[in-house]
Amino acid sequence: MQSSPYSNFGENLRDVLVLRSLSNQASSWTRKSGSFYGSKEYVRVLNNTSIVLLVAAWQVFIEDLVSWAFTMLSGKGRVSQRVVDSKIVGFNTPNQQKVDELVERKLGIQNLSANWHWSGVSTAAAKKKLQSLINHRNGIAHKLTKEVRMTNSGIDDYIHFISILVVISNNRVRSSLRQADIGTFPGEAGYRRGQAKRFIR
What we know:
By secondary structure, the protein is mainly α. The protein has 6 helices and no strands. The protein has helices at residues 5-28, 40-75, 81-84, 96-107, 123-141, 152-179. The radius of gyration is 19 Å and the shape is elongated.
């Protein structure tokens, strides 16, 4: 059976967690004269790569989520032929606006991002934080950001943040399918927001 979008995200996040582990180790190493390992440059490259891969994992999750739900809807004749023939294109910046537009266009679910809130975090704050992460990724990709201006714990916080968005978005789409009497993703139950912690153990 093909893995679910939620499970695929966990798999894709593993590479990010490996890089974070290496960066934490590098930060604690004693810097030797003329040695690359343990230097700020080594940590910078690992942290920058972690951010790029984290945003990529989020983007792939959204694409997988939409594709799975879209396949289920089209199998029940719930989408038009025009939409059936379209592909996910132009989704290179997975910010709030792009995510909402894609989900509404393909699945008919309006304003998915309105569900991005939890204790201590408002929807507006979640949208702003996601945009901040993507802006940082863009800066790295276009070599506009020479150095990651955040601590290792700050990057870990982004990892947990994205994991929560994954859980909430997954649940919202699953709920929409159930309400439409379509069914749900095979092989998985609903996930509580607290279960985002499973990704970063």
